[in-house]
Amino acid sequence: MSDAPSFRNPTAHDVARLAGVSQSAVSRAFTAGASISPDKREKIIAAADQLGYRPNILARSLIQGTSKVVGVVFGQFENPFFAHALDRFAEEFAARGLRILLFTAKTNATVDEQVAELLSYKVSAVILMAVNLSSKLAAECARSNIPVVMFNRTTEEDHAAFTVTGDNAAGATAIARHFLATGRKRIAYMAGYDDSSTSRQREAAFFAALADSGLPPPRRAIGHYSRHGAIEATRALFASASDQPDALFCANDLMAIAAIETLRAEFGIEPGAQCAVAGFDDIPMASWPSFSLTTYSQPVADMVARAVAFIAGETGEEQAVVVPGKLIVRNSA
Amino acid sequence: MSDAPSFRNPTAHDVARLAGVSQSAVSRAFTAGASISPDKREKIIAAADQLGYRPNILARSLIQGTSKVVGVVFGQFENPFFAHALDRFAEEFAARGLRILLFTAKTNATVDEQVAELLSYKVSAVILMAVNLSSKLAAECARSNIPVVMFNRTTEEDHAAFTVTGDNAAGATAIARHFLATGRKRIAYMAGYDDSSTSRQREAAFFAALADSGLPPPRRAIGHYSRHGAIEATRALFASASDQPDALFCANDLMAIAAIETLRAEFGIEPGAQCAVAGFDDIPMASWPSFSLTTYSQPVADMVARAVAFIAGETGEEQAVVVPGKLIVRNSA
DNA sequence: CTGTTAGCGCGTTCAC
DNA sequence: GTGAACGCGCTAACAG
Question: Does Transcription regulation appear among the keywords (chains A, B) (predicted)?
Answer without folding.
Answer: yes
